[in-house]
Amino acid sequence: MRILIVEDNRDIAANLGDFLSDRDHEVDYAYDGPTGLNLAKTHPFDALVLDLSLPGMDGLEVARQLRNEAKIDIPILMLTARDQLEDKLAGFDSGADDYLVKPFELKEVEARIEVLARRGQRIKPESLVVGDLEYNLETYRVTRAGQTIELNPIGLKLLEKLMSESPAVVSRRELEHHVWGEELPDSDSLRVHIHSLRTAIDKPFEHGMIQTRHGIGYSLVAPDEVSATS
C-alpha cells in the first residue's frame, strides 16, 4: 500500500515509516497540516495516518477539508495523545475512520491501516455513470452509448472529477488542482484539454454533456437533465 504519514514529530514519523517500509509499504511524509492536505489531495494514497495536533492546520481540519471540500474518501487513521471521549468524537465527526491513542504499538497501526484499506476497497465504486456515459475506474475504459472513447491521462483525470461531482459545477481552480496539483500550467492549458475532452465525449453524439459556466468552471450533466434545463 501507499501510505501518507502526516506527523510533526519526526522521530515518531520516521519510526512508523521505517516499520511500514520494512513490511513492503510505500511511505510518504508530511510534517504540517497544509502540506499533508495538499499531498492527500494531489496523490493517490491507499491510507492516511494523520496526527491530530499539527502546525499550520490541525488534523481535524485536514480531515474535514478532505471529506467536505475535496470529496476524497481515503481511509484516515487519526493519531493523538488525547484520550478523552470528546476528542475521539471530534475526530470521527471530522471524517476520521479510526482513532489510535499514543503511545501505540507499530503492529497495531499496520493492522488498523490494512483493515481500513480493505474496507475502502469494498466501498469504492468500480465505475462512474452519468446518463449513457460510463467510466470504469479499474480498467480506465470510457464508453458512451456503448461506444468506446479513447482519452489521454489528463482527459481521464478531468472526466473523473467532472463525473464524480456531476451535475455540480467544478471550478477551474479545482480542476487544475486535481490534474496538476500546485504546479499549475499556463492559463490556456485547461481550456485546451476541456476542448479535447468535449470533442471526444460530446461531438459524436446528439446531446452534449460538458457544460461551460462562464467565469466559474465546468459541469458534466446527463443528456436528459440538459434537455430539461434548456
Q: Could you explain how this protein is built, in words?
A:
It is a single chain. This protein is an alpha/beta fold and 230 residues long. The chain folds into two domains: 2-123, Rossmann fold (3-Layer(aba) Sandwich), CATH 3.40.50; 127-229, Winged helix-like DNA-binding domain superfamily/Winged helix DNA-binding domain (Arc Repressor Mutant, subunit A), CATH 1.10.10.10. It has helices at residues 10-22, 33-42, 59-68, 85-94, 106-123, 153-165, 172-180, 189-201, 223-229, and strands at residues 2-6, 26-30, 47-51, 76-80, 98-101, 127-130, 133-136, 141-144, 147-149, 170-171, 210-213, 217-220.
Taken from the alpha-carbon principal axes, the silhouette is elongated
Main-sheet strand order equals: 2-1-3-4-5
Number of helices: 9
Determine the structural class based on helices, strands and strand pairing: alpha/beta
If you compute it from the alpha carbons, what radius of gyration comes out, rounded to the nearest whole angstrom?
20 Å
Estimate nothing, just give the exact number of structural domains: 2
Largest sheet data:
5 strands, parallel
**Beta strands, count:** 12
CATH top level of the largest domain? Answer: Alpha Beta
Going by CATH, the architecture of the largest domain would be: 3-Layer(aba) Sandwich
Query: What is the averaged pLDDT score?
Result: 87
CATH superfamily of the largest domain: Response regulator
Helix content: 40-55%
